[in-house]
Backbone:
Protein backbone atom coordinates (compact mmCIF):
# COMPACT_ATOMS: atom_id res chain seq x y z
CA UNK A 1 0.00 0.00 0.00
CA UNK A 2 1.06 3.56 -0.64
CA UNK A 3 2.00 5.38 2.55
CA UNK A 4 -0.39 8.32 2.10
CA UNK A 5 -2.85 7.38 -0.61
CA UNK A 6 -5.90 5.54 0.73
CA UNK A 7 -6.49 1.85 0.15
CA UNK A 8 -7.74 0.97 -3.35
CA UNK A 9 -10.09 -1.82 -4.39
CA UNK A 10 -7.33 -4.40 -4.60
CA UNK A 11 -5.95 -3.42 -1.20
CA UNK A 12 -9.39 -3.70 0.40
CA UNK A 13 -10.01 -7.07 -1.18
CA UNK A 14 -6.63 -8.34 0.04
CA UNK A 15 -7.23 -7.07 3.57
CA UNK A 16 -10.72 -8.63 3.70
CA UNK A 17 -9.34 -11.90 2.36
CA UNK A 18 -6.62 -11.87 5.00
CA UNK A 19 -9.26 -11.25 7.69
CA UNK A 20 -11.57 -13.92 6.31
CA UNK A 21 -14.40 -11.41 5.72
CA UNK A 22 -16.48 -10.88 2.62
CA UNK A 23 -17.31 -7.19 2.95
CA UNK A 24 -16.38 -4.09 4.94
CA UNK A 25 -19.84 -4.18 6.55
CA UNK A 26 -18.81 -7.48 8.19
CA UNK A 27 -16.34 -5.43 10.28
CA UNK A 28 -19.34 -3.79 11.96
CA UNK A 29 -21.27 -7.01 12.59
CA UNK A 30 -21.03 -6.43 16.35
CA UNK A 31 -22.96 -3.13 16.06
CA UNK A 32 -26.68 -3.93 16.41
CA UNK A 33 -28.48 -3.40 13.07
CA UNK A 34 -31.12 -1.11 14.58
CA UNK A 35 -28.51 1.53 15.47
CA UNK A 36 -26.76 1.37 12.09
CA UNK A 37 -27.49 3.93 9.39
CA UNK A 38 -28.96 2.02 6.47
CA UNK A 39 -27.73 4.50 3.92
CA UNK A 40 -27.12 8.23 3.58
CA UNK A 41 -29.35 10.26 1.31
CA UNK A 42 -26.58 12.21 -0.38
CA UNK A 43 -26.46 13.71 -3.85
CA UNK A 44 -24.06 12.21 -6.36
CA UNK A 45 -20.58 13.59 -7.04
CA UNK A 46 -20.25 17.00 -8.61
CA UNK A 47 -17.50 19.33 -9.83
CA UNK A 48 -15.79 21.70 -7.41
CA UNK A 49 -17.28 24.89 -8.85
CA UNK A 50 -20.85 23.58 -8.50
CA UNK A 51 -20.23 22.37 -4.96
CA UNK A 52 -18.84 25.77 -3.98
CA UNK A 53 -21.85 27.53 -5.50
CA UNK A 54 -24.38 25.31 -3.77
CA UNK A 55 -22.68 25.72 -0.39
CA UNK A 56 -22.43 29.50 -0.87
CA UNK A 57 -26.17 29.61 -1.59
CA UNK A 58 -26.90 27.54 1.49
CA UNK A 59 -24.63 29.75 3.66
CA UNK A 60 -26.26 32.93 2.36
CA UNK A 61 -29.50 31.93 4.07
CA UNK A 62 -27.78 32.25 7.49
CA UNK A 63 -28.09 35.42 9.49
CA UNK A 64 -24.57 36.30 10.67
CA UNK A 65 -22.97 38.91 12.90
CA UNK A 66 -22.07 40.73 9.71
CA UNK A 67 -25.50 40.71 8.07
CA UNK A 68 -27.34 42.49 10.90
CA UNK A 69 -26.27 44.83 13.72
CA UNK A 70 -25.06 42.32 16.32
CA UNK A 71 -25.17 42.56 20.09
CA UNK A 72 -24.22 38.92 20.65
CA UNK A 73 -21.71 38.21 23.40
CA UNK A 74 -22.10 36.02 26.49
CA UNK A 75 -18.51 34.85 26.30
CA UNK A 76 -17.75 35.37 22.60
CA UNK A 77 -17.03 38.93 21.47
CA UNK A 78 -16.52 40.65 18.16
CA UNK A 79 -13.67 43.13 18.16
CA UNK A 80 -11.58 44.82 15.52
CA UNK A 81 -9.20 42.33 13.89
CA UNK A 82 -6.55 43.94 11.68
CA UNK A 83 -5.66 41.81 8.65
CA UNK A 84 -2.04 41.66 9.81
CA UNK A 85 -3.16 39.02 12.33
CA UNK A 86 -4.15 36.50 9.67
CA UNK A 87 -1.17 37.43 7.49
CA UNK A 88 1.19 36.39 10.30
CA UNK A 89 -0.90 33.34 11.32
CA UNK A 90 -0.85 31.95 7.82
CA UNK A 91 2.95 31.95 7.65
CA UNK A 92 3.93 28.32 7.12
CA UNK A 93 6.58 28.64 9.86
CA UNK A 94 3.82 29.26 12.41
CA UNK A 95 0.88 27.36 11.03
CA UNK A 96 0.78 24.50 13.47
CA UNK A 97 -1.28 24.36 16.63
CA UNK A 98 1.38 22.48 18.56
CA UNK A 99 4.43 23.41 20.50
CA UNK A 100 6.91 21.15 18.76
CA UNK A 101 8.18 18.03 20.48
CA UNK A 102 11.72 19.15 19.80
CA UNK A 103 10.77 22.63 20.88
CA UNK A 104 14.08 24.46 20.99
CA UNK A 105 14.57 24.05 17.26
CA UNK A 106 11.56 26.35 16.74
CA UNK A 107 12.87 29.52 18.30
CA UNK A 108 10.27 31.67 16.51
CA UNK A 109 7.36 29.72 17.99
CA UNK A 110 8.92 29.80 21.45
CA UNK A 111 9.60 33.54 21.20
CA UNK A 112 5.97 34.17 20.23
CA UNK A 113 4.75 32.11 23.19
CA UNK A 114 7.18 33.89 25.52
CA UNK A 115 5.80 37.22 24.36
CA UNK A 116 2.23 35.92 24.85
CA UNK A 117 3.10 34.91 28.42
CA UNK A 118 4.65 38.32 29.06
CA UNK A 119 1.60 40.18 27.72
CA UNK A 120 -0.86 38.03 29.70
CA UNK A 121 1.08 38.29 32.94
CA UNK A 122 1.14 42.10 32.64
CA UNK A 123 -2.60 42.29 31.94
CA UNK A 124 -3.37 39.84 34.75
CA UNK A 125 -1.11 41.66 37.19
CA UNK A 126 0.68 38.37 37.86
CA UNK A 127 4.28 37.22 37.84
CA UNK A 128 3.90 34.19 35.55
CA UNK A 129 1.53 33.15 32.76
CA UNK A 130 1.60 29.87 30.89
CA UNK A 131 1.77 29.19 27.17
CA UNK A 132 -2.07 29.14 26.96
CA UNK A 133 -4.87 26.63 27.47
CA UNK A 134 -7.79 25.56 25.30
CA UNK A 135 -10.45 28.03 26.42
CA UNK A 136 -11.93 29.93 29.35
CA UNK A 137 -13.93 26.95 30.59
CA UNK A 138 -10.94 24.62 30.87
CA UNK A 139 -8.90 27.49 32.33
CA UNK A 140 -11.45 27.68 35.17
CA UNK A 141 -11.16 23.92 35.67
CA UNK A 142 -7.38 24.18 35.80
CA UNK A 143 -7.65 27.00 38.35
CA UNK A 144 -9.78 24.79 40.59
CA UNK A 145 -7.44 21.79 40.25
CA UNK A 146 -4.44 24.10 40.77
CA UNK A 147 -5.96 25.37 44.02
CA UNK A 148 -6.62 21.80 45.14
CA UNK A 149 -3.00 20.79 44.47
CA UNK A 150 -1.50 23.94 45.95
CA UNK A 151 -3.32 23.29 49.22
CA UNK A 152 -1.93 19.74 49.05
CA UNK A 153 -5.19 18.05 48.19
CA UNK A 154 -6.51 18.46 51.71
CA UNK A 155 -9.45 20.75 50.92
CA UNK A 156 -11.96 19.07 48.66
CA UNK A 157 -14.57 21.75 48.18
CA UNK A 158 -14.72 24.67 45.79
CA UNK A 159 -17.03 27.67 45.90
CA UNK A 160 -17.92 28.96 42.44
CA UNK A 161 -19.96 32.09 41.86
CA UNK A 162 -23.19 31.42 39.98
CA UNK A 163 -22.23 34.47 37.93
CA UNK A 164 -19.35 32.49 36.39
CA UNK A 165 -20.42 31.60 32.83
CA UNK A 166 -22.87 28.65 33.05
CA UNK A 167 -20.99 26.77 30.33
CA UNK A 168 -17.73 27.14 32.26
CA UNK A 169 -19.46 25.76 35.33
CA UNK A 170 -20.83 22.91 33.28
CA UNK A 171 -17.34 21.95 32.06
CA UNK A 172 -16.10 22.19 35.65
CA UNK A 173 -18.85 19.83 36.84
CA UNK A 174 -17.84 17.30 34.18
CA UNK A 175 -14.15 17.49 35.10
CA UNK A 176 -14.46 17.19 38.85
CA UNK A 177 -17.12 14.47 38.84
CA UNK A 178 -14.56 11.72 39.35
CA UNK A 179 -12.08 13.67 41.49
CA UNK A 180 -13.94 13.86 44.78
CA UNK A 181 -13.96 17.66 44.61
CA UNK A 182 -17.38 19.08 45.45
CA UNK A 183 -18.61 22.25 43.76
CA UNK A 184 -20.76 24.70 45.75
CA UNK A 185 -22.48 27.36 43.66
CA UNK A 186 -22.87 30.77 45.29
CA UNK A 187 -25.77 32.93 44.07
CA UNK A 188 -25.35 36.69 43.60
CA UNK A 189 -27.16 39.28 45.69
CA UNK A 190 -30.06 41.44 44.45
CA UNK A 191 -27.54 43.69 42.66
CA UNK A 192 -26.25 40.79 40.52
CA UNK A 193 -22.91 40.74 42.35
CA UNK A 194 -21.35 38.30 44.76
CA UNK A 195 -21.38 39.71 48.28
CA UNK A 196 -17.94 39.20 49.91
CA UNK A 197 -19.59 38.45 53.26
CA UNK A 198 -21.71 35.73 51.62
CA UNK A 199 -18.58 34.36 49.94
CA UNK A 200 -16.77 34.28 53.28
CA UNK A 201 -19.73 32.45 54.84
CA UNK A 202 -19.83 29.92 51.98
CA UNK A 203 -16.15 29.02 52.44
CA UNK A 204 -15.70 26.22 54.91
CA UNK A 205 -12.49 24.89 56.35
CA UNK A 206 -12.36 22.35 53.53
CA UNK A 207 -12.80 24.85 50.68
CA UNK A 208 -9.73 25.21 48.44
CA UNK A 209 -10.93 27.81 46.00
CA UNK A 210 -13.26 30.77 45.50
CA UNK A 211 -13.84 31.23 41.77
CA UNK A 212 -15.18 34.56 40.55
CA UNK A 213 -15.79 35.92 37.06
CA UNK A 214 -15.45 39.65 36.49
CA UNK A 215 -17.03 41.21 34.55
CA UNK A 216 -19.44 38.46 35.47
CA UNK A 217 -21.86 36.53 33.25
CA UNK A 218 -24.38 39.37 33.67
CA UNK A 219 -21.73 41.88 32.57
CA UNK A 220 -21.38 43.28 36.09
CA UNK A 221 -18.07 44.05 37.80
CA UNK A 222 -17.48 42.07 40.97
CA UNK A 223 -15.89 43.46 44.14
CA UNK A 224 -12.52 41.80 43.49
CA UNK A 225 -10.57 43.23 46.47
CA UNK A 226 -13.38 42.28 48.87
CA UNK A 227 -13.66 38.78 47.41
CA UNK A 228 -9.88 38.24 47.52
CA UNK A 229 -10.00 39.19 51.19
CA UNK A 230 -12.90 36.79 51.79
CA UNK A 231 -10.94 33.94 50.18
CA UNK A 232 -7.83 34.72 52.21
CA UNK A 233 -9.82 34.73 55.45
CA UNK A 234 -11.38 31.42 54.47
CA UNK A 235 -7.97 29.86 53.75
CA UNK A 236 -8.87 29.30 50.09
CA UNK A 237 -7.17 30.52 46.94
CA UNK A 238 -8.93 33.36 45.11
CA UNK A 239 -9.33 32.62 41.40
CA UNK A 240 -10.50 35.20 38.90
CA UNK A 241 -11.80 34.05 35.54
CA UNK A 242 -12.09 36.66 32.81
CA UNK A 243 -14.45 35.98 29.90
CA UNK A 244 -14.10 39.34 28.13
CA UNK A 245 -10.35 39.96 27.99
CA UNK A 246 -10.66 43.44 26.46
CA UNK A 247 -11.98 44.56 29.86
CA UNK A 248 -8.36 44.25 31.07
CA UNK A 249 -7.65 47.38 29.00
CA UNK A 250 -9.26 49.50 31.73
CA UNK A 251 -9.83 47.11 34.63
CA UNK A 252 -6.99 45.93 36.88
CA UNK A 253 -6.24 42.22 36.60
CA UNK A 254 -6.92 40.30 39.80
CA UNK A 255 -3.22 39.70 40.42
CA UNK A 256 -2.82 43.27 41.66
CA UNK A 257 -5.97 42.95 43.80
CA UNK A 258 -4.99 39.93 45.88
CA UNK A 259 -6.05 37.07 43.61
CA UNK A 260 -3.96 33.89 43.48
CA UNK A 261 -4.98 32.91 39.95
CA UNK A 262 -6.12 35.03 37.03
CA UNK A 263 -7.31 32.93 34.14
CA UNK A 264 -9.90 32.98 31.40
CA UNK A 265 -10.74 33.40 27.79
CA UNK A 266 -8.70 35.56 25.41
CA UNK A 267 -10.80 35.05 22.27
CA UNK A 268 -11.37 38.82 22.26
CA UNK A 269 -7.66 39.28 21.49
CA UNK A 270 -7.65 38.75 17.74
CA UNK A 271 -9.58 35.48 17.46
CA UNK A 272 -12.68 35.79 15.28
CA UNK A 273 -15.98 34.65 16.81
CA UNK A 274 -16.70 31.24 15.32
CA UNK A 275 -19.24 28.53 15.80
CA UNK A 276 -17.41 26.06 18.04
CA UNK A 277 -14.18 28.04 18.32
CA UNK A 278 -11.25 27.97 18.33
CA UNK A 279 -10.95 29.83 21.58
CA UNK A 280 -7.93 30.70 23.69
CA UNK A 281 -7.49 30.01 27.38
CA UNK A 282 -4.94 31.72 29.58
CA UNK A 283 -3.66 31.11 33.11
CA UNK A 284 -1.51 33.28 35.35
CA UNK A 285 -0.31 32.85 38.94
CA UNK A 286 2.42 34.00 41.34
CA UNK A 287 5.88 32.57 40.78
CA UNK A 288 5.87 30.74 44.13
CA UNK A 289 3.15 28.42 42.77
CA UNK A 290 4.70 27.89 39.34
CA UNK A 291 5.34 24.19 39.92
CA UNK A 292 1.62 23.59 40.29
CA UNK A 293 0.80 25.59 37.16
CA UNK A 294 -0.81 23.52 34.40
CA UNK A 295 0.46 23.37 30.86
CA UNK A 296 3.58 24.55 29.18
CA UNK A 297 5.89 27.38 30.05
CA UNK A 298 8.50 28.99 27.82
CA UNK A 299 11.52 30.61 29.44
CA UNK A 300 14.18 32.98 28.18
CA UNK A 301 17.78 31.95 28.58
CA UNK A 302 21.15 32.29 26.82
CA UNK A 303 22.77 29.72 24.56
CA UNK A 304 26.39 28.59 24.85
CA UNK A 305 27.52 31.65 22.89
CA UNK A 306 25.73 33.94 25.33
CA UNK A 307 22.95 34.86 22.89
CA UNK A 308 19.31 35.18 23.86
CA UNK A 309 17.40 31.93 23.35
CA UNK A 310 14.04 30.45 24.40
CA UNK A 311 13.33 27.03 25.85
CA UNK A 312 10.49 25.03 27.34
CA UNK A 313 10.87 24.96 31.08
CA UNK A 314 9.35 22.83 33.85
CA UNK A 315 8.13 20.30 31.31
CA UNK A 316 9.29 17.62 33.75
CA UNK A 317 5.87 18.04 35.38
CA UNK A 318 3.90 17.55 32.20
CA UNK A 319 1.96 14.49 31.24
CA UNK A 320 4.31 13.12 28.59
CA UNK A 321 6.98 12.77 31.28
CA UNK A 322 5.05 12.40 34.54
CA UNK A 323 2.05 10.46 33.26
CA UNK A 324 -0.69 10.14 35.89
CA UNK A 325 1.23 12.35 38.33
CA UNK A 326 1.41 15.30 35.96
CA UNK A 327 0.11 18.66 37.15
CA UNK A 328 -2.51 18.56 34.41
CA UNK A 329 -3.62 16.43 31.51
CA UNK A 330 -3.02 19.35 29.19
CA UNK A 331 0.27 18.70 27.46
CA UNK A 332 -0.03 21.20 24.68
CA UNK A 333 -1.19 24.75 24.22
CA UNK A 334 -3.43 26.72 21.88
CA UNK A 335 -0.36 27.78 19.90
CA UNK A 336 -1.84 29.40 16.84
CA UNK A 337 -4.48 31.34 18.75
CA UNK A 338 -1.86 32.45 21.29
CA UNK A 339 0.10 33.78 18.33
CA UNK A 340 -3.02 35.59 17.09
CA UNK A 341 -3.45 37.21 20.50
CA UNK A 342 0.22 38.16 20.62
CA UNK A 343 0.20 39.78 17.19
CA UNK A 344 -3.11 41.49 17.96
CA UNK A 345 -1.99 42.87 21.34
CA UNK A 346 1.31 44.06 19.91
CA UNK A 347 -0.51 45.82 17.05
CA UNK A 348 -3.12 47.40 19.32
CA UNK A 349 -0.62 48.31 22.03
CA UNK A 350 -1.37 49.33 25.60
CA UNK A 351 -2.80 52.71 24.61
CA UNK A 352 -4.92 51.14 21.89
CA UNK A 353 -6.26 48.49 24.25
CA UNK A 354 -7.21 51.15 26.79
CA UNK A 355 -8.94 53.19 24.08
CA UNK A 356 -10.79 50.14 22.79
CA UNK A 357 -11.99 49.21 26.28
CA UNK A 358 -13.02 52.80 26.96
CA UNK A 359 -14.96 52.83 23.72
CA UNK A 360 -16.74 49.55 24.64
CA UNK A 361 -17.73 51.04 27.99
CA UNK A 362 -18.88 54.37 26.53
CA UNK A 363 -21.02 52.78 23.80
CA UNK A 364 -22.51 50.30 26.24
CA UNK A 365 -23.41 53.14 28.63
CA UNK A 366 -24.89 55.08 25.72
CA UNK A 367 -27.14 52.14 24.83
CA UNK A 368 -28.15 51.71 28.47
CA UNK A 369 -29.12 55.40 28.64
CA UNK A 370 -31.17 55.14 25.45
CA UNK A 371 -33.00 52.04 26.73
CA UNK A 372 -33.68 53.64 30.11
CA UNK A 373 -35.13 56.69 28.31
CA UNK A 374 -37.55 54.50 26.31
CA UNK A 375 -41.09 54.63 27.56
CA UNK A 376 -42.04 50.98 27.31
CA UNK A 377 -41.73 47.55 28.83
CA UNK A 378 -37.95 47.21 28.41
CA UNK A 379 -35.77 47.65 31.47
CA UNK A 380 -32.26 46.97 32.68
CA UNK A 381 -32.26 44.06 35.13
CA UNK A 382 -29.55 45.69 37.29
CA UNK A 383 -29.70 49.43 36.56
CA UNK A 384 -27.46 50.45 39.49
CA UNK A 385 -24.72 47.85 39.10
CA UNK A 386 -21.51 48.77 37.26
CA UNK A 387 -21.00 46.97 33.96
CA UNK A 388 -18.26 46.94 31.33
CA UNK A 389 -19.67 46.21 27.88
CA UNK A 390 -22.56 43.85 28.50
CA UNK A 391 -25.80 43.98 30.48
CA UNK A 392 -28.98 42.03 31.09
CA UNK A 393 -32.08 43.45 29.41
CA UNK A 394 -35.55 42.34 30.49
CA UNK A 395 -38.51 42.72 28.13
CA UNK A 396 -42.19 41.94 27.80
CA UNK A 397 -41.97 38.18 27.44
CA UNK A 398 -39.69 35.14 27.36
CA UNK A 399 -36.18 36.14 26.22
CA UNK A 400 -35.88 33.56 23.46
CA UNK A 401 -39.09 34.75 21.79
CA UNK A 402 -38.10 38.38 22.13
CA UNK A 403 -34.75 37.67 20.48
CA UNK A 404 -36.57 36.12 17.51
CA UNK A 405 -38.90 39.09 17.23
CA UNK A 406 -36.00 41.56 17.39
CA UNK A 407 -34.15 39.55 14.75
CA UNK A 408 -37.20 39.90 12.51
CA UNK A 409 -36.95 43.64 13.21
CA UNK A 410 -33.38 43.65 11.93
CA UNK A 411 -31.09 43.30 14.97
CA UNK A 412 -29.31 40.40 16.61
CA UNK A 413 -30.23 41.72 20.04
CA UNK A 414 -28.13 39.39 22.16
CA UNK A 415 -28.11 36.03 23.89
CA UNK A 416 -31.26 34.90 25.74
CA UNK A 417 -30.39 33.57 29.20
CA UNK A 418 -33.38 31.25 29.45
CA UNK A 419 -31.51 28.17 28.24
CA UNK A 420 -29.13 28.26 31.20
CA UNK A 421 -31.48 29.11 34.03
CA UNK A 422 -29.95 31.03 36.91
CA UNK A 423 -31.21 32.99 39.88
CA UNK A 424 -31.50 36.18 37.78
CA UNK A 425 -34.50 37.34 35.73
CA UNK A 426 -34.97 35.81 32.30
CA UNK A 427 -33.54 38.33 29.88
CA UNK A 428 -31.26 39.11 26.97
CA UNK A 429 -27.53 39.58 27.47
CA UNK A 430 -26.66 42.57 25.29
CA UNK A 431 -22.99 43.04 24.35
CA UNK A 432 -21.55 46.25 22.93
CA UNK A 433 -18.05 46.62 21.53
CA UNK A 434 -16.01 49.26 19.76
CA UNK A 435 -17.47 47.82 16.54
CA UNK A 436 -20.99 48.79 17.58
CA UNK A 437 -21.74 51.91 15.53
CA UNK A 438 -24.09 54.77 16.31
CA UNK A 439 -26.43 53.43 13.62
CA UNK A 440 -26.35 49.96 15.25
CA UNK A 441 -27.47 51.57 18.52
CA UNK A 442 -30.22 53.48 16.69
CA UNK A 443 -31.34 50.23 15.03
CA UNK A 444 -31.43 48.45 18.39
CA UNK A 445 -33.46 51.15 20.13
CA UNK A 446 -35.80 51.37 17.12
CA UNK A 447 -36.39 47.62 17.16
CA UNK A 448 -37.12 47.70 20.91
CA UNK A 449 -39.72 50.39 20.27
CA UNK A 450 -41.44 48.22 17.69
CA UNK A 451 -41.38 45.02 19.76
CA UNK A 452 -42.16 46.53 23.14
CA UNK B 1 28.67 4.45 44.52
CA UNK B 2 28.99 4.91 48.25
CA UNK B 3 26.74 2.81 50.46
CA UNK B 4 27.40 3.71 54.13
CA UNK B 5 27.47 0.65 56.35
CA UNK B 6 25.39 2.10 59.22
CA UNK B 7 22.25 2.88 57.18
CA UNK B 8 19.15 0.95 56.13
CA UNK B 9 17.84 1.08 52.56
CA UNK B 10 14.63 0.92 50.58
CA UNK B 11 14.50 -0.79 47.19
CA UNK B 12 13.26 2.57 45.90
CA UNK B 13 16.67 4.04 46.85
CA UNK B 14 15.95 5.95 50.04
CA UNK B 15 18.14 5.53 53.11
CA UNK B 16 17.11 5.61 56.76
CA UNK B 17 19.29 6.43 59.76
CA UNK B 18 17.77 5.45 63.08
CA UNK B 19 18.65 7.91 65.88
CA UNK B 20 16.70 6.71 68.91
CA UNK B 21 13.00 7.44 68.21
CA UNK B 22 13.84 9.47 65.14
CA UNK B 23 14.45 8.23 61.62
CA UNK B 24 16.38 10.51 59.26
CA UNK B 25 15.54 9.95 55.59
CA UNK B 26 17.40 10.81 52.41
CA UNK B 27 18.09 9.39 48.97
CA UNK B 28 21.15 7.34 48.13
CA UNK B 29 24.23 8.33 46.20
CA UNK B 30 23.02 6.02 43.42
CA UNK B 31 19.59 7.70 43.33
CA UNK B 32 20.97 11.24 43.08
CA UNK B 33 23.36 10.08 40.36
CA UNK B 34 20.45 8.60 38.37
CA UNK B 35 18.36 11.75 38.80
CA UNK B 36 21.07 14.18 37.79
CA UNK B 37 21.22 17.77 39.03
CA UNK B 38 18.36 18.30 41.50
CA UNK B 39 16.75 21.72 40.97
CA UNK B 40 13.76 21.56 43.32
CA UNK B 41 12.71 19.53 46.32
CA UNK B 42 9.10 19.30 47.42
CA UNK B 43 8.85 18.25 51.05
CA UNK B 44 5.88 17.23 53.21
CA UNK B 45 4.41 19.43 55.92
CA UNK B 46 5.68 18.88 59.43
CA UNK B 47 3.05 16.88 61.30
CA UNK B 48 2.12 14.68 58.35
CA UNK B 49 1.51 11.07 59.38
CA UNK B 50 3.12 8.45 57.12
CA UNK B 51 3.29 4.71 56.64
CA UNK B 52 6.30 2.99 55.17
CA UNK B 53 5.99 3.13 51.39
CA UNK B 54 3.99 6.39 51.37
CA UNK B 55 5.12 9.20 49.13
CA UNK B 56 6.93 11.84 51.16
CA UNK B 57 7.59 14.35 48.42
CA UNK B 58 9.20 14.86 45.04
CA UNK B 59 12.63 15.58 43.69
CA UNK B 60 12.87 17.50 40.46
CA UNK B 61 15.94 17.30 38.30
CA UNK B 62 16.49 18.93 34.94
CA UNK B 63 15.17 15.81 33.23
CA UNK B 64 12.58 14.23 35.52
CA UNK B 65 10.42 14.52 38.63
CA UNK B 66 10.50 11.54 41.00
CA UNK B 67 8.70 10.75 44.19
CA UNK B 68 10.58 9.60 47.26
CA UNK B 69 8.98 7.14 49.63
CA UNK B 70 9.08 6.77 53.37
CA UNK B 71 11.14 3.87 54.75
CA UNK B 72 9.46 4.29 58.15
CA UNK B 73 6.06 4.71 59.76
CA UNK B 74 5.42 7.70 62.02
CA UNK B 75 5.07 11.45 61.85
CA UNK B 76 7.18 13.99 60.00
CA UNK B 77 8.79 16.15 62.69
CA UNK B 78 11.35 18.11 60.68
CA UNK B 79 12.11 18.90 57.06
CA UNK B 80 15.43 20.06 55.62
CA UNK B 81 14.62 23.70 54.96
CA UNK B 82 18.05 24.40 53.49
CA UNK B 83 16.96 22.46 50.40
CA UNK B 84 14.58 25.25 49.42
CA UNK B 85 17.54 27.46 48.52
CA UNK B 86 20.16 24.74 47.99
CA UNK B 87 18.52 21.70 46.34
CA UNK B 88 21.95 20.70 45.02
CA UNK B 89 22.85 19.50 48.56
CA UNK B 90 20.99 16.31 47.60
CA UNK B 91 23.64 15.73 44.92
CA UNK B 92 26.66 17.05 46.78
CA UNK B 93 26.08 15.34 50.15
CA UNK B 94 23.21 12.83 49.89
CA UNK B 95 24.01 11.15 53.22
CA UNK B 96 24.77 14.37 55.12
CA UNK B 97 23.52 17.92 54.48
CA UNK B 98 21.28 16.60 51.71
CA UNK B 99 18.96 14.72 54.10
CA UNK B 100 15.25 15.22 53.38
CA UNK B 101 13.00 14.63 56.39
CA UNK B 102 13.05 13.40 59.96
CA UNK B 103 10.31 11.09 61.11
CA UNK B 104 9.35 10.38 64.67
CA UNK B 105 8.78 6.65 64.42
CA UNK B 106 10.49 3.44 63.62
CA UNK B 107 11.71 1.19 60.85
CA UNK B 108 10.87 -1.81 63.01
CA UNK B 109 9.31 -4.59 60.97
CA UNK B 110 9.75 -2.77 57.64
CA UNK B 111 11.21 -4.59 54.66
CA UNK B 112 14.52 -2.71 54.46
CA UNK B 113 17.97 -3.79 53.33
CA UNK B 114 21.26 -3.39 55.14
CA UNK B 115 24.24 -1.92 53.31
CA UNK B 116 25.38 -5.29 52.02
CA UNK B 117 21.88 -6.19 50.84
CA UNK B 118 21.48 -2.84 49.10
CA UNK B 119 24.86 -3.19 47.39
CA UNK B 120 23.72 -6.58 46.04
CA UNK B 121 20.40 -5.06 44.99
CA UNK B 122 22.22 -2.34 43.05
CA UNK B 123 24.35 -4.95 41.31
CA UNK B 124 21.22 -6.88 40.28
CA UNK B 125 19.58 -3.64 39.09
CA UNK B 126 22.53 -2.84 36.85
CA UNK B 127 22.47 -6.32 35.24
Residues:
Amino acid sequence: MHPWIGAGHDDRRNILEELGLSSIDDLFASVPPQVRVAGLDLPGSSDEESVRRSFAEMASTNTTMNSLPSFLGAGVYRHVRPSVVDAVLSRAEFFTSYTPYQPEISQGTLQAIFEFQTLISRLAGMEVANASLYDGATALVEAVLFSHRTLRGKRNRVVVAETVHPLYRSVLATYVEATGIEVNVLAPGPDGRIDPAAARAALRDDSCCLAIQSPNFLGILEDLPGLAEAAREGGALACEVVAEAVSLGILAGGGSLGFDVVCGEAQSFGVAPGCGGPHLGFFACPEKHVRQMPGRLVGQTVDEDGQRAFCLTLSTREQHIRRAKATSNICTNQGLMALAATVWLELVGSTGLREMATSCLARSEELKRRITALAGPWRLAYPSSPTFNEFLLVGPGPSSELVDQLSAEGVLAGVPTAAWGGSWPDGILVAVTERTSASDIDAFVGALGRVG
Amino acid sequence: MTVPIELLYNRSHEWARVEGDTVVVGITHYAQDQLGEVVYVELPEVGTGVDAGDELGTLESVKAVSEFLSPAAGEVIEINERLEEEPNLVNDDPYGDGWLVKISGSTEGEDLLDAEGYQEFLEQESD
User: Anything to note?
Assistant: Chain A has two domains: 84-343, 349-451. Chain A touches chain B at residues 152, 291, 316-317, 321-322, 325 (CB under 8 Å). Chain A has twelve helices and 13 strands. Residues 349-451 of chain A form a domain with the Aspartate Aminotransferase, domain 1 fold (CATH 3.90.1150.10).
